[in-house]
Structures are given as C-alpha cells and as structure tokens.
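Chapter summary example.
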Amino acid sequence: MEKNEIKAVEMTRKIRDAHYEQLKGKSAEERIAFYKQKAQAVEARMAIAPGAKEHPAGASRTTRPTR
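The structure predicted for these 67 residues follows.
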C-alpha cells in the first residue's frame, strides 16, 4: 500500500508564493479585499453563513484557543 504524505511546508510555500505573485504591487486595501474574498469562498464551501458566530462543528469562529 502506498503511503500518502502531506508535505505541509512545501504546500504552504506554494500557496504563499502564488499569493505573492497575485498581490505584488497591490495596495493594502486590495490585499485586504483579496483575503476577504478568499475567506468568503472558504466559508461558502464550509456552509458558514457570513457573520455567523458558530462554526458548523460548534466551535466559535471568533474565539481563539487559549494556551
């Protein structure tokens, strides 16, 4: 059986490099709009209503885990 490895660092670098190319030369407002649009797309895929306080699994989206 073939083992599927997740190469998290490589994947993160690819995403970061792609975002850099898309955003270089953009204003702060344009960068913020880009990330807001990306967040909305993720929320739509996860069926989270915009502005909702609860994640579908019940965890709050606005609360960060405590250490």
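To summarize the output: The chain is about 50% helix and 0% strand.
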